[in-house]
Amino acid sequence: MCQCDNSEAVSGPCYPSSLTDEMWEIIRPLLPVRDLRKGGGVRKYGDRLVLNSVFYVLRSGCQWRMLPHDLMPWDAAHRWFTKWRRDGTWGRIHDELRRQVRIGAGRDPEPSAAAIDAQSIKTSEGGEARGFDAGKRTTGRKRHAIVDTMGLLLVVAVTSASVQDRAGGRTVLAQLAVGFRTISLVWADGGYANSVDSTLLSWARDALNIVVEIVKRTDDVKGFKVLPRRWVVERTFGWLVRNRRLARDYERLTATSEAMIKVAMIRLMLTRLAGQPSRWSHESHRKTARTKTIEDLIAA
Question: Which of 3, 123, 191, 205 has its CA 20 to 30 A from that of 279?
Answer without folding.
Answer: 123
